[in-house]
Design brief:
- The structure is a single chain.
- By secondary structure, this protein is an alpha/beta fold.
- It folds into two domains: 168 residues, Ribosomal Protein S5, domain 2, CATH 3.30.230.10; 243 residues, Rossmann fold (3-Layer(aba) Sandwich), CATH 3.40.50.
- The protein is 38% helix and 17% strand.
- The chain contains 22 helices and 18 strands.
- The protein has a five-stranded parallel beta sheet with strand order 11-14-17-10-18.
């Protein structure tokens, strides 16, 4: 190295989608006219790091290096975004300027934003970066205290929480000790219990509750249609109480998405319950699907491995609903921008609710509908046919009268329903053990339907009758077969019976015209 030039380096990461790639932070300090340059395709937030870093260094008790400083973030063809490089830049700068001696600095990964006081602030996307540091074999990673529990769910690498720049430097010099943080991921997942509303509170609605049980057991998309106040939202809000528990792998997968989006709750280092997302109908296309100048995951990805509930579905913008067709079919969403393309997983169960007409009271015996047939058709057509074809179960929810509410017994508790759902999911897990792309019956492809949905003689006759009656599309046919397979799993049938087929075809209310 040229005389007078001093170089220091450490590692961090750059997040694209839900994955991170290695970023090497190199800082070169030399005598000469004081300058501070950051290269390596930095965005505005990264360029501003020089002001945050310089002030944080001064407020941490170090003299500002009056030197010619060049910071290189490699590889140079990957855009660097956000304030996450403040901490590694500051540490490498002081090492290169010979203010501190950190003999094994290149063995460490670091991430964190610096306040002007030298405090290390929380950042988003820590989890995938720590996973990347483990992959490249770093001995440990320094993270903000607020991110420590989240980062520590990654096994195989030591995670050290730091509160200030001074604390990080004292540790790297060997002048202070920090205890690594460990999070027992499996214990957290096992301890996670869904709380909140219970199906025991729901009186009546046996038809709707049965359809919901089947939908959850097979991971099927569900549409509920009914007049205002009949209980659609109430039923949907209780779905989390019967969802099967997350596995450790699923929990880590979901947490990585929420980490990138920056929506992990304080004190909850990992997502231990299946997500239940319920965006408002004014949500934009980018809000639902993801996007922005710097692409972020949308609601379809935040609901990965869980439920996306769209209340008043026809009130969502047509564009937002139509672009959901790809993630519903593929289980992922690709977002393309000038800087590149990133992909987010989006394998979720769609639960939607809608009124039968704009005023909401078509078919209600207690209220008169004010909508013409044309208005009702226009309202229904806000949800396109191709999108409806991707909704396996479509049911009508009817109001429960006051007399029925007073007389009916308490409903079945969620715990009992959930136990049946878990048994059905266990059957599916064993069935698809050799296919990593299928997690439940809803994921089956055409060839899988032919293999696993064997019909007995009476079931074949029943299926032909219902297909002719409803005039189903090829996609709708596949959906009926998948739902029938789930009904059979809940009943413990190896083959699909005529009763299973009849039940599945009966949950296709939108294929009939009596309610228009």
């Amino acid at each position: 190295m040229e005389r007078g030039l001093r170089l220091a380096k450490c590692y961090s990461g750059s997040v694209t989608g839900v994955r991170a790639r290695t970023v090497e932070i190199e800082v070169c300090a030399s005598s000469g006219s004081p300058q501070f340059a950051i290269v390596g395709l930095p965005d505005t937030a990264v360029k501003e790091a020089k002001d945050r870093v310089s002030t944080a260094i001064a407020n941490s008790g170090f003299a500002r290096p009056e030197m010619n400083i060049t910071v290189n973030l490699a590889p140079a063809d990957v855009r660097k975004e956000g304030p996450i490089y403040d901490l590694p830049i500051a540490v490498c700068l002081l090492a290169a300027a010979d203010r501190v001696r950190c003999p094994d600095l290149a063995e460490w990964g670091m991430v964190g934003e610096l306040a002007l006081s030298g405090e290390v602030r929380r950042v988003r996307g820590v989890l995938p970066i720590v996973m990347e540091m483990r992959r490249i074999g770093r001995k440990g990673v320094l993270v903000p205290v607020e991110n420590a529990e989240e980062a520590a769910v990654v096994n195989g690498i030591s995670v050290y929480p730091v509160r200030t720049l001074r604390e990080a430097l004292d540790f790297l010099k060997g002048d202070a000790m920090l205890r690594p943080v460990f999070t027992d991921l499996a214990r957290l997942v096992r301890a996670g219990r869904d709380t909140g509303d219970d199906f025991a509170d729901v009186k009546g609605q046996g038809f709707a509750k049965r359809a919901i049980e089947v939908a959850v057991a097979g991971g099927h998309n569900l549409m509920m249609i009914g007049v205002p106040g009949c209980g659609k939202t109430m039923l949907a809000r209780r779905i989390p109480s019967i969802l099967p528990p997350l596995s450790v792998e699923e929990a880590l997968e979901v947490t990585r998405i929420h980490s990138v989006a920056g929506v992990l709750k304080p004190g909850e280092p990992i997502v231990v319950h299946r997500p239940f997302r319920a965006p408002h109908h004014t949500a934009s296309t980018a809000g639902l699907i993801g996007g922005g100048t710097h692409p972020q995951p949308g609601e379809v990805s935040l609901a990965h491995r869980g439920v996306l509930f769209l209340d008043e579905m026809p009130e969502f913008s047509r564009n937002a609903l139509e672009v959901m067709r790809q993630p519903l079919e593929d289980g992922s969403v690709a977002i393309s921008r000038v800087a590149g393309t990133c992909s987010y997983p989006s394998r979720f169960m769609l639960v939607a609710a809608m009124n039968p007409c704009p005023c909401g009271y078509f078919g209600d015996e207690r209220h008169q509908c004010r909508c013409s047939r044309a208005k009702r058709m226009e309202y229904r057509n806000r949800v396109s046919g191709p999108l409806l074809d991707r909704i396996d179960i479509q049911i009508e929810v009817t109001p429960v009268s006051y007399e029925e509410l007073a007389e009916l017994p308490t409903g079945e508790p969620s715990s009992a329903i959930r136990s049946r759902v878990i048994r059905a999911r266990a059957i599916q897990e064993a069935r698809f053990a050799d296919d990593p792309d299928i997690f439940c019956n809803a994921d089956m492809r055409s060839r899988d339907i032919a293999r696993y949905c064997r019909l007995d003689r009476s079931a074949q006759v029943m299926l032909r009758s219902r297909l002719e009656q409803l005039d189903l599309s090829a996609r709708a046919y596949d959906r009926v077969m998948k739902v029938a397979r789930t009904v059979a799993d809940l009943a413990g049938h190896d083959a699909v019976t005529d009763e299973d087929v009849n039940a599945a075809a009966g949950w296709r209310v939108l294929d009939r015209n009596y309610w228009i």
